[in-house]
Each structure stands twice: as C-alpha cells, then as structure tokens.
Amino acid sequence: MAGVAPADALVVFGITGDLARRMTFPALYHLVAQEHLACDVIGVGRRELSDDELRRLAREAVEAAEEAIDEGVLDRLLAQLRYVGGEGPLVYERLRELLREASAPVYYLATPPETFPEIAAQLAAADLVDDGRLVVEKPFGTDLASARELNGLLAAIFPEERIFRIDHFLGKEPVQDIVYLRFANALFEPLWSREHVTSIQITMAEDFGVEERGAFYDRVGALRDVVQNHLLQVLALVAMEPPSGGDDAIARRRLDVFRAMPAADPDSAVRGQYRGYREVAGVARNSETETFVALRLEIENWRWAGVPVFVRAGKRLPTTGTEVVVRLERVPQLRWGRRRLHTPGTDDIVLRVGRDPGVTIGIRAKTPGTEVSQPVSLDLDFEEELGEPPQPYERLLYDALRGDHTLFPHWDVIEETWRIVQPLLDAPPPLEPYEPGTWGPASAEALTAPHGGWRAPQGRMR
Q1: Which residue numbers are catalytic?
Q2: DSSP state of 450
Q3: Which of 171, 182, 403, 453 could form a disulfide with 4 if both were Cys (CB 3.0 to 4.6 A apart)?
Q4: In this predicted model, what pLDDT tens digit does every residue of 317-327 receive, in sequence order?
C-alpha cells in the first residue's frame, strides 16, 4: 500500500509453540519461495535455544507440512532466522540490539491473548514501538467488556492503524472469492437482495470432536470459537454493499453490515453439547460449554430487511464442511391446460469456503416423460479451474509485512461482533444434548423449518 514502509524485521513471539509449528513456519517457507520475505525473522520464546536449535525446529515443521521440499528455499529461510529466549526485560534488551538497524519491524504475537498487554508494554518500555506494527491472534477478548479492556490497553501503546488482528478465515482464498463472485458477475448481483432471496444460511460443520483441545475448548465453546469471529466475518462479505473509494472500502462495507444487525435474541438460538464431551480430558465433568450453536440473525438495512440469516456451527456432526447458502424465492406454480409447472425443493446458490472451495448453483430441468422439474446443479471447483490457492497464514503474514489492513478486522468491527453475540453470553439458551453423528439438537431444525430447512454441506470441506 502506498505510504506504508515494508517491514524490515519480523519478530515472532511464541515461535516455539504449536501455532508456529503448524502454521507460521510453513507460511514463512512459502513466502521465501515467492520472494516475499526479504527481512530477518527473530523468534522470541521462553525456552533458551540457540539459533541452530530454532532452525532445526523450523526444518522439522516445514518437512512435516510439505509433501516436497525445495532445499534451496528452506536453506534461505533458515539463514534468516534468529532467536531470543528467556523472560523479563533482558529479553527486550537483547531484542533491541537485534533490531538496531530496523525502522519498520512487525511484532507477531503467536501467544495466548492474556500475554498481549504485557508484551506490548515491554516493547514500549524498551523503546521498540515507534513505527512498529503489532499483529495479534484471536480470540480478541472473551466478551464485549474484555475485548474493550484489551483494546484499550493495546491502543494506549500502538495506534489503531498499526494493530493487525488476525482472523484466519479472512485469509482463506475462497472467503475472499465471495467478494469477486458477487461483484464481478452480472448473474448474481441483481438477485442479491430481499426481492429475490428468502434466507441466508451459514454452516460450519466438523465431524470430529475437541480431541486433545479439551482444556482450551471448555473455556471457549462454539459461539466464541467460530461464530463471533469467523462466521460473522463471512456473513459480512456475503451481505455487504459494493466496496468503492479508498483502501479501506471493504472494511467500511463490512462494518456497515454489523451496525445494521440487532443483537442476537437468546429465544432464537439453540445450544447443544455432544454426548461424551464431558469425558474428554481437560473438560469439566459438569461442563455447560456448547459444542453446537445455531441462531437466527437479522440485517436491518434496505437490501436485507426481512431476510432471516441462520448460522450454525458444531462438532461431531455428520460431515465436515463450511458453506454459505443463499436461498432464492420460489417461482410461482403455473398451469397451462392440463400441464402444471411443479418445482419441489428449494433454489440455492451455495458458496463452499472450505478445503473444497467452489460454488454450486441449483437450477431445474424437466424430468423426461413427466410434468415435473428436478433439481440439477451447476458446479465450479475453484482449485480445479483456477489452481491451488495460498494458505491463510501465508497471505495474512504477507499483508502484515507490507502494511495492508484489508483482511484484518478493525477494532470497530470486533466491537460490533461482540455486541451482536453478547446476549447469548449474558443469558445463554439451555444446553441440549445431542448424539455424535447427528445435526445437533432437534430444536435447531425448527429455526429454519419455515424457510426450507437447513442444507447439509456435502463432503469433507474443512
């Protein structure tokens, strides 16, 4: 972006952790391969390691993630790695020495959110904040009050334009494709409003449980884990007005959607917990944490007034997939002579935003020899037609290094999404059990029954 200096150092806090192993090191490898990582990478962790030991960890992480390794690329990445280990002010003194030539460092906090204020304060105390950018992971708070408190602490040190809040869903190429699909095709935009759409659904289904994440997940639950952040951000891209005018055009249009949304009504929401969850290691035996949530939302603006929005997410469901369903109004049932136009089912435009990205458009064709139409699908597989996309962390780290905020939610967006879900935290609906391998509590079906029911994602598309 014009006027923003590219990063001349990337400092990764928590570089010895699980997130760095699974996501950060593979992303850095791909950035080096594309010649998008021109600066040194300084890892910071509590463990005392040498630079060579960090390089060994990086090699192991990349080799575990990649089917084939370009040794030249990996060697270039390893040569760019440095390490600072330990705790307290001495760590930041050593970091300042390594950054003495840097004028635009990026500080990426791949650490638990409770560490964010302390790290930011230590960077300020060491005089390392000027012209630096701060990148933080989710969750950003655990409710509206804690999010506001956290933002106040960080904003007292880093200005908003230099804070980058990661939501890795926004880094997914098929999520970004939503904007292009809508606004680059004359087929869709004329239909994309209350005049032609009867409902919108978003489903994020996972056929697995919390597994070894029990202790973490039991403090979070489905609403905080994926709805307040990932799925509401997807909804904003589906529902927003056409972006125009300035680098922050998409961010402004996303914010408009959230500001038009009333807070969620607990009477229009369902919480569930799969049987067996309380036996998972790290989960409280009397846990009231939801592993499934379904809710109805509204968008009170000219485009979407009166169109219900249904969101559901859950674990131990029949399949794994993430889909957006834009359900169109039914055509009238016409007669001519003894013939009748019979159109059972629903007309859906389905946006697949998981590992099997693409779009499915439901149309109808006459069944041979009958007076009945049958649903048929026009399918586009994005990877098959357009090639394999970059991974989310690869794109997000690259954008942070060049100072591009487009895929990072601003504070006012985070605040609005917490406002929307806060009533479900203040007065949560009763927790209902459900059997693993089903679509959650039976009461969730009642939410969408008047609008054609839920559409189940097809296949494994996480």
Answers
A1: 230
A2: G
A3: 403
A4: 999 999 999 99
